[in-house]
Design goal:
The structure holds 3 protein chains of 3 kinds. By secondary structure, chain A is mainly α. Helix content of chain A is 76%, strand content 2%. Chain A has one domain (16-325): ABC transporter involved in vitamin B12 uptake, BtuC. In chain A, strands 1-4 form a two-stranded antiparallel sheet. The longest helix of chain A is centred in the first third of the chain and has 33 residues, at 2-34. Chain B has one domain (28-336): ABC transporter involved in vitamin B12 uptake, BtuC. In chain B, strands 1-4 form a two-stranded antiparallel sheet. A two-stranded antiparallel ribbon of chain B has the order 2-3. Chain C is of the alpha/beta class. Chain C has a single domain (10-251), classed as Rossmann fold (3-Layer(aba) Sandwich). Classes of the chains: A mainly alpha, B mainly alpha, C alpha/beta. Chain A binds chain B through residues 117, 121-124, 126-128, 130-139, 141-142, 146, 254, 257, 261, 267-268, 297, 299-307, 309-310, 313-314, 316-317, and chain B through 128, 132-135, 137-139, 141-150, 152-153, 157, 264, 266-267, 270, 274, 280-281, 310, 312-320, 322-323, 326-327, 330-331, 334.
C-alpha cells in the first residue's frame, strides 16, 4: 500500500510539473506570435534570463518557505533596504565583495526578524511581513529621501562580471547563479534531512514537534534563506543597473506568491517541489517579459498577475480535491 | 456534588479572574494608546494645531473614509477572514460613481449603483474564499491587484471632476459632505450610525452570535447547524457595501475621482482592527474596540503629518505599529491560555 | 408512514446501513437500534465504523443504502439541523464549542432564542443555560464566562446541557471521555446518569471499555464496519466484555 501511494504521489507531482512545462511552452509560443516575434529575439531572451533570474532567485526561497507553511510578503522591501545598505557600504570605499558579504548578513538579519516575530509571537506570517513590507519600504524612503543615486563600479570589473557578466558569450551570469541556487536548494529540499523537516513542519506541525523536530528552528532558517537571497538579488540588480532607486522591488511580493503557487506549492504548506518552484518562477518571469515585449501598458500587469494567482488558486484547489478523492 | 472539591473551585475562580483582567487589559490598552496619541499630538504639534477646531473638523471629515471600512473589516476578521482588496474596491466604486454621474444619472442613483457594485465585489471575494477554501488573504491579494489593474487600465489613471454633477447645497451634497448642527461633519454622523447598527448586529443579534461562532470554532458552528459559508459571504458583502459608501463620501468630499484613492488601506484597515483588539485568528473582538481602532489609525496619520513627519516615515511607522500591536495582543491572549 | 415495527418502545432503528468513501467501505450492512430511555455503549477499535455509523444518524453523512426509522416513522436525515429537529443531539469528541464565546451563547449556538427581528433574548439565554447546567448538577458562577475558563469536564457539561435544554430524545456522545483526567471522567459519567434520569436515550461511543461498562445497559461491538456482538450488561462481566471486543477484532482478520 505504501509503495502504491508513493508511486501515485510521484505520478501526481510529475503530472503537475509537466503541466507547468506545457503552460510555459504555450506562453512562449503565444508571446512570440503576439509580439511580432520580438519576444524570441536572442537579445530579449537574454534580458528575460537576466531580469528573470534576479527575482526568481528570491522566489526559490519563497517556495521553500511556503512548503514550511509560512509566507513572506516583505521581499520587495527587504530587497530595497539591502540595496540601500550595499550602496552606503560601497560609498564608504569598502571593497564590493566585502560590502556584498555584509549585505548578505543584513539580509539574513531581516529574515531572522520576520521569523522571530512570526514564530515567537505566534502571529500569521502574512501580517508580520505585510507590516514589515510597509516598514522597510518607508524606512528606506526616509533614509534615502526618495532619491535615485548612481553608483560607479568601473574600478571593480571582477565584481561586475561575477554579478552580472556573461558566460559563453551568451548566458547571463545571473541565470547561472539562479540555476546553481535552484540545484542547491533542490538537494537540500529533497535529499537532505533538513528538507524532510521542512515538509514535515508544513504538513503537520504538531506531529513534527512530537517527533522531535524543532519546527520553530526550521521556519527561522527558511525565513533567513529568503532574507539572504533578497540581499543577493539586490546586489545583482545594483551591479547591473548601477543605480539605486527606492522603488526597487515594488510588486515582487505578489509575484513571489504567484510563482510558488503556479509551481504547485500548496498555500497550506507541506506540498511542493523544487522542479515546480523553478518552473513557476520561470513562468512568472516569462509573463513579465512577454507583456513588455507585446507592448502591453504597465497597468495591465496588475490585471494579469491578479488573474494568474486566482487561476492557480483554483487549480490547486482542484488538484487537492482530486488527490484526496484518490 | 460534582464540584465539591475545594481546590477545583479555587482553580476555577482564578481562571475567571484572569479572564476578566484580560478583557479589562485589552480594552484598556486600546484606550490608553488612543488617549496617549491625542495628548502627544496635542502637546507636540506646532501651536497645538492638532486640537484646534479646524483640525478636529478636518479629522471628522477624513477619518470615516477608513473608519467606515474598518467597521466591516473588523466583523469579517471576527468571522475569521481578511479582506485586503478594500484598497482597490474603494477606488473602483468611486470610479463607478463618477462614471455614472458622467453618464447622466442623478448622484443618488449613481451612489446606489456604486454601493451595489461594491457589494458584488464583496460577494465575489466571499464566494471564491468559501468555495476554494483557500486563505482569504491570498484570494483578496489577488483581487486587490486585479481590480486595481482594471481600474488603472479603464480610467487611464486620469482624475474625473464630479463637481458639475453634485450641486452645492443640494440635499445629496449635504448628506455626503455637509455639517450637522453647524459643527458635526456629516461623515462622522455616518460613521456613528454604522458603528451603532453593526454593533447591535454583532452583539445583540443572532447573526452576530453566528459570526463569533464561525470565527471561534468553525466545525462546532457547523455541527450546530450554522451555515458558516453564508456567514462569511455576508461579512464579505458588508465590507464591499461599506467600501462603496466610503468611496462615495470620499469622492464627493474631494470633488473628483482619483485613481490613488484607498492606497494603503489594505493594511490600515487591518491595523485599525488589531489596535481595537480583534484577534487575527477570529472569534475575538468587540465593536467598541473596532471604533476606537478606527479612530486611532487616522489620528496617527493626521498627527504625524502635523508633526511634519515625511509621508514615507508615516508608512514605516504604521507598519511598525501594526506589528507591535499584533505582538501585544498575541502575548496577552497566550497569557490567558 | 410505515409502522411495520410493532416494538413500540423502539426509539430509533437503523437497518442494513451501508456507507463507503471512495474505496473505503466504512459501514457494511449494519443493524442498530436504541430503545426509549436506554443507554447503549457502542464499542470497537479505531476504524471499526462506530463514528461513521453515528454520523449517519446525526446527519453528518448520508448512508448509501439502508433505512432509518425514528419513533416509528421512516426518516431521511440530510443535515445536522434535521437531526436536531427530530430530537437527536450529538456531543462531539472535540465538544463542538466555541472557546471564546460565553457559556450561554454556546448552549444556544445556531438556535438562539430571539425577541423579534433576530435580536437575541439574552435574559432567557442566561436563565435557561444555567437551569440546564444545574439540572446536570453543574453549578457555574455566571453564564457570561467564556467556556475556555472551564475545566475539560465542565466543557463537556456545557455540551451535554445543550442537549438537555433542547429536549433531546436521543443524545449521542462521541468519545466524551477521551483526553480527560480521571476526575473529569467521573464528572462526565455523572452527567450521563443525569440524562438517563430524565428518560433520555443515550448512545455512548468509546473505545474505553471501562468507561462504557460503568454506564451502559447494553453493548454493541463493531469491527471492520460490521456489528460483531450485541450483549446486555446482565450477560457479561467487564472481563468477558473485554474479551469479546478483542475477539471481534481478531476474528475479523481471518
Amino acid at each position: 500500500m505504501n509503495t502504491a501511494n508513493r508511486n501515485y504521489l510521484k505520478k501526481f507531482m510529475l503530472a503537475q510539473s509537466t503541466s507547468i512545462l506545457v503552460v510555459l511552452i504555450i506562453l512562449f509560443i503565444l508571446f512570440a506570435i503576439y509580439s511580432d516575434y520580438r519576444f524570441i529575439r536572442p537579445a530579449n531572451i537574454r534580458s528575460l534570463l537576466t531580469f528573470g533570474a534576479e527575482f526568481s532567485l528570491i522566489f526559490l526561497a519563497i517556495g521553500v518557505l511556503m512548503i514550511s507553511g509560512e509566507f513572506d510578503l516583505s521581499i520587495g522591501s527587504l530587497l530595497v533596504f539591502s540595496s540601500y545598505i550595499f550602496l552606503k557600504l560601497f560609498q564608504t570605499g569598502l571593497n564590493p565583495f566585502m560590502a556584498f558579504l555584509i549585505t548578505l548578513g543584513v539580509g539574513a538579519f531581516l529574515g531572522l526578524l520576520n521569523a522571530l516575530i512570526t514564530v515567537k509571537g505566534q502571529i500569521p506570517s502574512f501580517v508580520t511581513t505585510l507590516g514589515m513590507m510597509m516598514f522597510w519600504r518607508g524606512f528606506t524612503l526616509l533614509l534615502s529621501g526618495g532619491a535615485t543615486e548612481s553608483i560607479d563600479f568601473s574600478a571593480h570589473p571582477l565584481f561586475v562580471s561575477s554579478m552580472t557578466g556573461v558566460i559563453g558569450l551568451y548566458f547571463p551570469v545571473q541565470f547561472i547563479w539562479f540555476v546553481v541556487v535552484a540545484v542547491l536548494l533542490g538537494v537540500l529540499l529533497h535529499y537532505h534531512r533538513f528538507g524532510n523537516w521542512i515538509y514535515a513542519t508544513g504538513d503537520n506541525r504538531e506531529a513534527s514537534r512530537a517527533m522531535g523536530i524543532n519546527t520553530n528552528h526550521v521556519k527561522i532558517m527558511c525565513f533567513i534563506m529568503v532574507g539572504i537571497l533578497c540581499a543577493c538579488a539586490a546586489t545583482m540588480q545594483l551591479a547591473r543597473v548601477s543605480t539605486f532607486t527606492s522603488r526597487a522591488g515594488e510588486g515582487w511580493e505578489l509575484r513571489g506568491v504567484a510563482a510558488a503557487v503556479v509551481g504547485g506549492t500548496s498555500l497550506r504548506g507541506g506540498i511542493g517541489n523544487m522542479g515546480g518552484i523553478f518552473l513557476g518562477a520561470m513562468t512568472i518571469a516569462t509573463i513579465d517579459n512577454g507583456l513588455v515585449a507585446m507592448r502591453v501598458p504597465y497597468e495591465w500587469s496588475f490585471v494579469v498577475f491578479g488573474l494568474v494567482i486566482l487561476f492557480s488558486v483554483l487549480s490547486s484547489m482542484y488538484l487537492e480535491k482530486r488527490r484526496l478523492s484518490g | 456534588m460534582v464540584f465539591g472539591m475545594k481546590e477545583e473551585v479555587e482553580n476555577r475562580k482564578m481562571n475567571v479572574k484572569s479572564f476578566r483582567s484580560f478583557l479589562a487589559q485589552r480594552s484598556a490598552t486600546t484606550l490608553v494608546v488612543f488617549i496617549a496619541l491625542v495628548v502627544i499630538f496635542s502637546l507636540f504639534t506646532r501651536n497645538h494645531v492638532f486640537i484646534g477646531q479646524r483640525n478636529i473638523t478636518a479629522l471628522g471629515k477624513l477619518f470615516p473614509d477608513l473608519g467606515i471600512i474598518a467597521l466591516g473589516v473588523g466583523m469579517l476578521m471576527i468571522s475569521g477572514e481578511f479582506d485586503l482588496s478594500v484598497a482597490s474596491v474603494l477606488p473602483f466604486t468611486s470610479y463607478i460613481f463618477a462614471q455614472f454621474m458622467l453618464g447622466g444619472y442623478a448622484p443618488f442613483w449613481a451612489l446606489l449603483v456604486a454601493i451595489g457594485i461594491g457589494g458584488m465585489l464583496g460577494l465575489l471575494n466571499g464566494i471564491i474564499v468559501v468555495k476554494t477554501n483557500m486563505p482569504s488573504f491570498i484570494v483578496t491579494l489577488a483581487t486587490l491587484m486585479f481590480w486595481r489593474g482594471v481600474l488603472f487600465v479603464w480610467s487611464r489613471m486620469m482624475p474625473l471632476n464630479i463637481r458639475p454633477f453634485v450641486e452645492r447645497g443640494s440635499l445629496f451634497e449635504q448628506a455626503m459632505n455637509g455639517t450637522v448642527a453647524e459643527f458635526f461633519p456629516i461623515q462622522t454622523v455616518w460613521f456613528i450610525i454604522f458603528s451603532v447598527v453593526l454593533g447591535i448586529i454583532l452583539h445583540f443579534h443572532r447573526f452576530g452570535n453566528w459570526i463569533f461562532a464561525t470565527g471561534d470554532n468553525r466545525d462546532a458552528a457547523r455541527a450546530m447547524g450554522i451555515n458558516t459559508n453564508l456567514v462569511k459571504i455576508i461579512c464579505f458583502i458588508i465590507v464591499g457595501l461599506l467600501c462603496g459608501l466610503s468611496g462615495g463620501l470620499q469622492t464627493v468630499r474631494l470633488g473628483s475621482f482619483a485613481a490613488t484613492q484607498g492606497i494603503g488601506f489594505e493594511l490600515r484597515a487591518i491595523a485599525a482592527c488589531v489596535v481595537g483588539g480583534v484577534s487575527l485568528r477570529g472569534g475575538i473582538g468587540a465593536m467598541g474596540g473596532i471604533v476606537l481602532g478606527a479612530l486611532t489609525i487616522p489620528i496617527l496619520d493626521n498627527g504625524l503629518i502635523l508633526m511634519r513627519v515625511p509621508v514615507f516615515g508615516i508608512t514605516a511607522f504604521i507598519g511598525l505599529a501594526t506589528i507591535l500591536f499584533v505582538l501585544l495582543n498575541s502575548y496577552v491572549e497566550r497569557k490567558l491560555m | 408512514m410505515s409502522n411495520e415495527n410493532n416494538n413500540s418502545d423502539l426509539l430509533v432503528k437503523m437497518t442494513n446501513i451501508h456507507k463507503w468513501f471512495g474505496r473505503v467501505y466504512a459501514v457494511r450492512g449494519v443493524d442498530f437500534q436504541v430503545r426509549q430511555g436506554e443507554t447503549v455503549g457502542l464499542l470497537g477499535d479505531n476504524g471499526a465504523g462506530k463514528s461513521t455509523l453515528i454520523k449517519i444518524l446525526c446527519g453528518y453523512h448520508q448512508a448509501e443504502k439502508g433505512d432509518i426509522i425514528f419513533e416509528g416513522k421512516k426518516v431521511r436525515i440530510n443535515s445536522p439541523r434535521e437531526a436536531q429537529k427530530l430530537g437527536i443531539e450529538t456531543v462531539y469528541q472535540d465538544q463542538a464549542l466555541a472557546p471564546n464565546l460565553s457559556i450561554a451563547r454556546n448552549v444556544f449556538m445556531g438556535r438562539e432564542p430571539v425577541k423579534g427581528m433576530g435580536m437575541l433574548d439574552k435574559k432567557l439565554m442566561d436563565e435557561e443555560s444555567m437551569k440546564a447546567l444545574s439540572n446536570l448538577g453543574l453549578r457555574l458562577d455566571s453564564p457570561d464566562l467564556p467556556v475556555i475558563t472551564l475545566s475539560g469536564g465542565g466543557r463537556q457539561g456545557v455540551a451535554i446541557a445543550r442537549a438537555l435544554h433542547f429536549k433531546a430524545k436521543l443524545v449521542i456522545l462521541d468519545e466524551p471521555t477521551v483526553a480527560l483526567s480521571v476526575k473529569e471522567v467521573g464528572e462526565v459519567l455523572e452527567f450521563i446518569k443525569q440524562l438517563r434520569k430524565e428518560g433520555i436515550s443515550v448512545v455512548f461511543i468509546s473505545h474505553n471499555i471501562y468507561h462504557a461498562f460503568s454506564i451502559a445497559e447494553r453493548f454493541v461491538v463493531m469491527a471492520r464496519g460490521k456489528v460483531m456482538r450485541e450483549v446486555t450488561k446482565e450477560e457479561v462481566t467487564l472481563d468477558k466484555l473485554n474479551e469479546l471486543v478483542i475477539e471481534s477484532a481478531i476474528v475479523d482478520i481471518d
